[in-house]
Amino acid sequence: MKDYIQVPASELDKPYELTSTRESNPFLWLRVCCCCSALRPRYKRLVDNIFPEDPKDGLVKADMEKLTFYAVSAPEKLDRIGSYLAERLSRDVVRHRSFVKFANIEEDTPSYHRRYDFFVSRFSAMCHSCHSDPEIRTEIRIAGIRGIQGVVRKTVNDELRATIWEPQHMDKIVPSLLFNMQKIEETDSRTGPPPSPPATDKEENPAVLAENCFRELLGRATFGNMNNAVRPVFAQYSHHVIQEILGHLDARKKDSPRVRAGIIQVLLEAVAIAAKGSIGPTVLEVFNTLLKHLRLSVEFEANDLQGGSVGSVNLNSSSKDNDEKIVQNAIIQTIGFFGSNLPDYQRSEIMMFIMGKVPVFGTSTHTLDISQLGDLGTRRIQIMLLRSLLMVTSGYKAKTIVTALPGSFLDPLLSPSLMEDYELRQLVLEVMHNLMDRHDNRAKLRGIRIIPDVADLKIKREKICRQDTSFMKKNGQQLYRHIYLGCKEEDNVQKNYELLYTSLALITIELANEEVVIDLIRLAIALQDSAIINEDNLPMFHRCGIMALVAAYLNFVSQMIAVPAFCQHVSKVIEIRTMEAPYFLPEHIFRDKCMLPKSLEKHDKNLYFLTNKIAESLGGSGYSVERLSVPYVPQVTDEDRLSRRKSIVDTVSIQVDILPNSIPSDDVVNNTEEITFEALKKAIDTSGMEEQEKEKRRLVIEKFQKAPFEEIAAQCESKANLLHDRLAQILELTIRPPPSPSGTLTITSGHAQYQSVPVYEMKFPDLCVY
C-alpha cells in the first residue's frame, strides 16, 4: 500500500500550476549536457573526432591512430565502428540531398527575411574551380551549377524581392554559366531547342547542366528583367566590336583624312562599351593600333609639307594638314577616353606603353619607327604622344607617389623636360601634375601670383607617408635638377613659369617634410642667384621671370609651414619690390607692357631674399638649417647629351681646395722680385688673407660634412671632367712632338726621304752652346 502525502489546502486552488526547479539551480541543465557527452560510447567519440571542423584541414592523423588502436584492441567493436561510420557518411549525403530537394521546391509566398547573396558568390566561385584533379574539378563545377539553379528557382518568382535580377548578381551568374558552356561541342549547338539529354549526361556534364540552367533562367525572366540577364552575355563579346572597327581602320589607312576621322569617331563612341570589360592583350592591341595610325597621320602631314609648292598646291596641302590634324585630335581623344575608362592597374600599364613610344634624341629605347619623319615629324609625334599620355593620366589617383611615378616611368618622362622645345616641357610638367595632385589642389594653384593668404585656398593635405618620404630621398635631386634647368631655358614663356611654380607648390603639398622644405628653399635661392649672376646670358625678361617665380613660391611655402619670422621676411621683401622693383613680381612682369631694368647688379640687397635671414628665422622654429649655407648645385647626368643641351659642366664651375699644401705660402718671396707699393700692401694684408684662407677651408670642410651625397658627387664629377679635359689637351700636344733641328723625314710615293739641315743652320738651346 503506497503512502500518499496530503496536499496543503492553500494549494488546492492551483492544481495545474507547476513550479519550475530550473530557477533554483540555473547550472543544472549545463551539467546534464556535459555529462551526456561523456555517456556516449567511446567508439562514437573516436569516430566523431576524426572528422575535422573545417573540411579543408583533412583527417586528423592523431585521432585516426587512436581509432585504429582502439579497433585493434577491441575487435568486437569493429561492427559498431563500421556501422557508425556508414551512418555519419549517409548523414552528410542526406544533408546534401535535402538541400537539393529544398532548392527545387518553389515557394508560394515570398520570404522577406531570406537573402541569397552569399550563395550566389560561393556557387559562382565553384563554377570556376581550377582543381588539379579533373574529376574533383568537374564535381565542384557541377555542384556550383546546381547551387545556382537552386537559387534561381527560389527567387525568380519572388516579384516583391527580385534581388536575383540585379546587375551585381547577374554579372556573377551569367559569366559562370557561359564559362561552363564554352566546352560544348559544335555539333550540339542547334538553331532550335535541342532534345533533352539523358539523365546521366545532365548529372555528369557541366556544359549540358549549365546550358539547361541558363535556358531556365532566361525562360523565367520577365520583360523588365530581360535586359539585366542579356547584358552580361553581350559584355563578354563587346571587344569584338572594337577589333572589327580597328580592322576596318587598318584597311582604310590610305583613304582621305575625313574617312579615317569618321572611323575613329565611331571607335570613340564604341569605346565606352568595351573599355571596362576589356582584358590586357585587347587593351594593348587597341592602343598599339591607334598609335600606329597616329604615326601614319604625322608622316602624311610631314610628307605634304615637304612636297608642297607654290600656288594652288599650297592651298591643297594646307587643307590636308588641317584634315590630318582632325585625325590626330580624334585619335588623342579616343586614347584619352579609352584610358580614362580603364581600371587603375591597366591605366598604369598603358602609361608605360605610351611612354615607351616617345622618341628621345640620342636614344634607341623607343619602339616607334621615326626613320621617315625627320626632325619636324619627330617633334610632332613627340607632342602627339605626350598629349595622349596627358589624356590617359587625367583623373588618375594613386595612394602613393611611388605607384604613380615608378623609376621605370619617371626617368623617360623627365628626359623630354630638358629638350629645347617649350611645348614639350609644358606637356611633361602637366603630366607630372596629373600624377602628383592626389587631392585636387592644382586648380587652386592655377596662375603664378603672390597669394595674400594661402589659408583661403583651403588646400587639402595629408600626412606624408613613409613611401613618399623614401621616394623623395631617392628621386628628389632628380626633380630639383629638372626644375632648376627648366627655369633657365631661353625659350620659356609665361605658361612655363606658371607650370614650374605649380610643380614646386605640388611637391610642397604632397611630398614635403622638413628636409624637403629646406631643399626647396635652397633651390629657390639658387634660382635667384642664377638670375642675378646670369652665367647663361639669359634675356632680361627671363631673369625677371625667375625672380618673380622665386618670390611667388617663397610666399607660398612660408605660409604653408607657418613660421612667423620667415613669413615676415618674405612679406617685407615683396613689399619693397612692389614699391621699388615691381618687375620682380609675377603680377607685373607677365603683363604685356612691363618696363624692364637694364641690369640687376646695382639693385639694393633688400630686394632679394637673403639666406642668412631665412636660416635665422627657420632655425628659431626647430628646422635644421645647416644645409642652407651650402649652395645648391644640380646633379650631373647624361641627360644633357640626350636632350641636345649644353653640359652642366660648362655652366657650373666648382673649384674645391681641401689640402692646405695646395695654398701658396705668402712667406715665400722671390729674390728677384722688386719691392713695390703692391708688395708692401700685400705684406700688410697678410694676416687678413690668412683669415680668408682659414674661412675658406672651414666652409669646404663644413660643405663636405653637411651637404647631401648627391651634391658632393656632382662637385667631384664636374672637377674630374675638367681634369680630364686638361689632360686630353696635354696628351694631344705630346702626341705630335716638335720638329727636330737635325732634319725632317718625309714620305713621297711610298719612299722615305730624309732632308738634312746643315750644322750651321741648326738652332741649339743657349745652355748647350759654349
TrEMBL record:
GO terms (BP aspect): protein localization to plasma membrane; synaptic vesicle priming
Q: What GO cellular component entries does it have?
A: cytosol; glutamatergic synapse; plasma membrane; presynapse
Looking up InterPro entries in the UniProt record yields: ARM-type_fold (IPR016024), EFR3_Homologs (IPR051851)
From which domain of life does this come?
Answer: Eukaryota
* SUPFAM superfamilies recorded: ARM repeat
Q: Where is this region: Disordered?
A: 186-205
Name this protein carries in UniProt:
EFR3 homolog A
